[in-house]
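Title: Prediction job returns without error message
Component: structure pipeline
Severity: low
Priority: P3
Assignee: unassigned

Description:
Job completed but the reporter wants confirmation the result is attached to the right record. Sequence as submitted:
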Amino acid sequence: MQKNKNPFINLILDEEEKQLEEALEKGEFEENPDLEMTKKMLKEAVHQYRQLHISKPVTLRINQLDLIRIKAKAKRKQIPYQTLLGVLLHDFAEGKRELSIK
């Protein structure tokens, strides 16, 4: 294994990347006067994004018979019933499943 191998030797740039590289070489970029504020804003955006993807525990009351049926279906699929419920809720939240009340 070579430690000094250049990972950019076979790099192929698309048109936008080529334009950016040319502009950088020509010195056409200017420093952002609010760089620290931009960094702070981006760090906060990353933090908020990560918070949106953290699982949160939920307490839920469910009919005993429904729970037995859900557990049986999950067992047939060989997944934990909490995972099955999470998938169903996620699909509903994403609009992939519709609620049908009869």
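Comment from assignee: result matches the submitted record. The longest helix spans residues 35-52.
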